Amino acid sequence: MARKKQYIEQEVLEKAMSLFWRNGYENTSVRMLEKEMGINQFSIYASFGSKQGVFLESINTYKKKIHSITHKLEKTQNGVAGIKQYFYDFLEFSEENNVCKGCLITNTVNELGQNADPMLMTELTKFANDIKQLFKKNLKQDSKKDMETIESESNYLMTSILGISVASKIFNKKQLEDAIETAFKNL
Amino acid sequence: MARKKQYIEQEVLEKAMSLFWRNGYENTSVRMLEKEMGINQFSIYASFGSKQGVFLESINTYKKKIHSITHKLEKTQNGVAGIKQYFYDFLEFSEENNVCKGCLITNTVNELGQNADPMLMTELTKFANDIKQLFKKNLKQDSKKDMETIESESNYLMTSILGISVASKIFNKKQLEDAIETAFKNL
DNA sequence: CACAATACTAAGCAATTGCTTAGCTTAATA
DNA sequence: TATTAAGCTAAGCAATTGCTTAGTATTGTG
Fold this sequence. Notes:
The structure is a homodimer.
Chain A: H1 9-23, H2 30-37, H3 41-48, H4 51-75, H5 79-93, E1 95-96, E2 99-100, H6 104-112, H7 118-141, H8 147-167, H9 173-183
Antiparallel strand pairs in A: 1-2
Helix pairs in contact in A: 1-2, 1-4, 3-4, 4-5, 4-7, 5-7, 6-7, 7-8, 8-9
Chain A binds a DNA duplex through helix 3.
């Protein structure tokens, strides 16, 4: 009985995600979203309710996108080597047109910090924690580390990947590889 | 012959810096600066020219403030141990009311990225490079590392401190200590 | 005291923000 | 083919943005 949507929500979300990823939440206006997504503001609000709504769905889209490499990590059986590979995979993942955008989740945590909507913040820290659990799983595969060591090293790995995410915006490839190689020397 | 300023520029800059540090550049409006600095917009523009001008001076104020710990690092003769101490000093430095604000420079790089004013970006990367040089200096004190190793390890240390800076916003003290302790095990 | 140079107050500027709405097209069903 | 529920266009909303300006207050000097 009714007219059909002239866009596919997942498709325009990909574009919205890309824009948020490049510019951050506050530096992305609804007008910019209009242009990037190629649809009118009315359609944006009809589909996603608010700018925050678009952002939340963009986060979900990001999660799906990064799932290819988190899934790979989830399936590895080779301990620390698998985690190291994840670091390299992440770098490749975050690169676009030779420009590193870091991690959308990390960027957002860093931008909004404690000013962020609590629900959003919960969502973001949950993601971070899931990654940490994957690190732990792989660390356990590596022989005789005790619980305490595994906890410490997973915290270390989390700050390392956060560091890589930020550094990727100003460091060149060689410097990032230096960082990764050295980071894994003592694990 | 003329009326006197009713505020001290360095004093109001301290307050501006604190606000930018907490909220980032874009999330800080001139009205917010007015309130925090306790002076009228006219005075802000008379003293600093623009919002960006206030920010640039805030960065300088930040540098002066952090100089107490970079200076300490500059003077240390105890190699890696001195760098590790710097990490702990930084954590203490970035804490305010039990809330970690990270590093103003790192936050800004992360927020503005390649969208930033080139002059500002140059300023920020220069600061990062100065820290890296201090790391190198201390690494050289530690015996028989070759040039290549020192370069690699200084890149590693830079990403580590960046990671600590970001992680400090979501990790608790124990987790951050885990990260630092593990980070220095292989140096 | 009067002058002149600067600072302060507060109102107001155009532009942009997130969001809404009135009026139209579109398309599947009866 | 007429109806009707939904989507689209584009104009417009109040609030906020960075910044300016007109008018007034304060000061040291002649």
